[in-house]
Amino acid sequence: MSTAANTAVNTTSPSAAGGSITPVVVRLKLSLLRGGLRRSGGRRAAYIASAVVALLFAVSQLLGMILLRGHAHIASVTVLGTAVLALGWAVMPLFFPSGDETLDPTRLVMLPLRPQPLVRALLAASLVGIGPLFTVLLLTGCVISVAHGAAAYAVAVLALLLALLVCVALARAVAAANTRLLTSRKGRDLAVLSGLVIAIGAQLVNFGMQRLGSSGLGRLDPVADVVRWVPPASAVGAVDSVSDGSYGVAVAQLALTAAALAALLTMWARTLTRLMTSPDASTLQPADTAARDRSRTGGLTRLLPSGRTGTVMERSLRYVWRDPKTKAAWVTSLAIGLIVPVFNALQGTGSLYFACFAAGMLGIQMYNQFGQDTSAFWMVALTISTPRDAYLELRGRALALLVVTLPYATLVTVVTTALLGDWPRLPEVLGLSFSLLGAMLATGAWTSARFPYSIPQEGHKNVAPGQAGLAWIAIAGGMVSAALLSSPVIALAIWANVSATGDTWSWLLLPAGAAYGAAITYAGLRLAAPRTAARLPEILTSVSKG
Amino acid sequence: MVSNSAVRVQGLWKRFGQQVAVAGIDLELPAGKFIGLVGPNGAGKTTTLSMVTGLLRPDQGTVEVVGHDVWRDPVAVKARIGVLPEGLRLFERLSGRELLSYSGRLRGLPGAEVDRRATQLLDVLDLSGAQHKLVVDYSTGMRKKIGLACALLHNPEVLFLDEPFEGVDPVSAQTIRGVLERYTASGATVVFSSHVMELVESLCDWVAVMAAGRIRAHGTLAEVRGQAPSLQRAFLELVGAQGREAGSDLDWLGGGTR
């Protein structure tokens, strides 16, 4: 890292001196890559593993495409594949803004560089890495599968180069246009939530693939007819056109791709110039936006109980909505808690007992309560003097969770029951849900006090380095204990199912499960409170590592 | 209980692994004074303040704040102290006003009283315009000010501030200063850490100098300064940083050839 940085600094004004800064920037990129990997062994291992996986995927894709040569719909598949690849390049910088440091032009703002050489240099540097290699392999597969004849192969080389450059330039142009957003707090929040977007997107793609699998690739053709004119897919389209002998069309498609590349580079150069010449306004104080949310605040406060309970509940509920990490965890829990029982029921493979997933998934949110506070836990620690204070604090958090979880778990259970048409079992499953929820709250409160760990605020990790074991003990141990704790109600449910007279009594499981859940929550909070009060400094130390 | 010392520390030790952060501190801080805890980076100021305020458990030693043991009588101590730590977050996804409201209610103050005090504090600290902005979007100076407001809200007897002026612009610094001076004039005690000697010299009437986990000197400003022309000089002598003339090797720096 230092050698490249020195080179960059010593080369006072490369454009004036007649030299090119391209090699300097490429070397800087390589040094940054090396430096990033040198920081820790785990990082190196993760990088190598992800590189291997990505390359294996790309190579298998390449081989698959070559095998598919001559398939009736292969042209549509390659064209659409290229378009999806380009889309990936376009959204990548929005989700992983810190992925490439050479990409952030504001870091180079103090160096005397002109936009044109800078754009060339950054473009060249962008071609270094796993991403571009992955793209080259995929694009190679695409062009080989549609190229027939020497002319087509010649065009394929040009098409490959153009498509790759368009992808990279697209990513850089998008990143530069959004640098201000991406370096702001809102951009970082967005990055934290991006995992969810990708997960949901994967579900949609999966759904689309299943539809395609059932109705055939022919459905792609009308879309592909349009996309083959959209750069960079138009470059792959050109190869196909040459194979068909339509040279005029191929020239038009290649020209379109080249024009798109030129346009992207111009746009990128303009944005870079603006970024590097105008001051950063992100720390300027915006005009007063007073009284914007005053009424909303008042409303929420009025509905909640007074005293510590209401104060804690209000803060917890606000964090569910406003804190990206908490929000991501909640949305995941809510989604899985709904998807598992309802989708299984829709596919006819479901059991009503899957409805307990909702309670179980949301109960997880009670775990590591103080870790969710991050080091701001000191504000809580300074107001806890007695086990009573700790009890009120934990109870407030449990109540905030119940405000969402109770209606949600009930709703999911009712919806699943309606889908399966198994109404007689509803009370029984609700009772099971409530007792499981109670057990999760109890074990969650206890492990929050006993095994707290830090949740890093940036990035996708949910455990601070070195605390993974702690988190594992807390969550896995807690969930096993929760299952054991709700075993009396589970036993009752089994009895109701196997016994001859069980059906007449199974409705009793609803009140019994609810009462048991409430009692065990109370017991869990009571046990956790003195531990919390006695371990405040230790908890603060454990949760301050992120 | 009757005591004219705000804080009494005896035999305080803290080790982190091999490293000794605080190596046996005995210190008595007088009540009603503006007290500065000064020392270079890594001297153990933050560790000491964390242990005194009950946020970090000492390996050894006792701490009493206004006559109450911090670890045996937390009820009495926590109600009487206000703290602004360094390097710890606030609940930053709340707006400034929400944070004050949360902090005050958590301490058991009545809601109406919290709102009244919050309005005044926001006003005095020049945060009224940003009161509905999330704290995560605040600048460093604004964060220090909202942290100070949280620490003052329950009208504590002793206020502990860790680097309250670090990274704060001159305007905000003056505001913070004004509030603190008004607060000590009423008989309350302020203990703050800093490595900016000019600031300590102009604000404090009592100083403790820390280096390498020990107290090197303590007493009134005049006592600690002694014969030295300024606190800065006295401090450099105390921590043994004298005689290291900076820059004799950098003969190429400035003028001549580039």
What does this structure look like?
The complex is a heterodimer of chains A (546) and B (258). The model of chain A is unreliable at 1-17 and 282-297 (pLDDT under 50). The two termini of chain A are 26 Å apart. Helices cover 76% and strands 0% of the residues of chain A. With 546 residues, chain A is mostly helical. Chain B is 34% helix and 25% strand. Chain B has a 6-stranded mixed beta sheet with strand order 6-7-8-3-9-10, sandwiched between helices. Chain B has a 4-stranded antiparallel beta sheet with strand order 2-1-4-5. In chain B, a hairpin with a 2-residue loop joins strand 9 (206-211) and strand 10. In chain B, helix 3 crosses helix 4.
Report a brief summary of the structure.
Chain A: It comes from Streptomyces spiralis. Chain A has 546 residues and is an all-alpha fold.
Topology, element by element:
The complex is a heterodimer of chains A (546) and B (258).
Chain A: H1 2-10, H2 14-17, H3 22-38, H4 41-67, H5 74-95, H6 115-126, H7 130-146, H8 150-177, H9 179-182, H10 185-215, H11 221-227, H12 233-244, H13 247-277, H14 294-303, H15 307-322, H16 324-346, H17 356-363, H18 369-373, H19 377-381, H20 387-420, H21 426-450, H22 468-485, H23 487-498, H24 502-505, H25 509-534, H26 536-543
Helix pairs in contact in A: 1-3, 3-6, 4-7, 5-7, 5-8, 5-11, 5-12, 6-13, 7-8, 7-12, 8-12, 8-13, 10-16, 12-13, 15-16, 15-20, 16-17, 16-20, 17-20, 17-21, 20-21, 20-25, 21-22, 21-25
Chain B: E1 5-16, E2 19-30, E3 34-38, H1 45-52, E4 60-65, E5 68-69, H2 74-80, E6 81-84, H3 96-106, H4 111-124, H5 140-152, E7 158-162, H6 170-185, E8 189-194, H7 197-203, E9 206-211, E10 214-220, H8 221-225, H9 231-238
Parallel strand pairs in B: 3-8, 3-9, 6-7, 7-8
Antiparallel strand pairs in B: 1-2, 1-4, 4-5, 9-10
Helix pairs in contact in B: 3-4
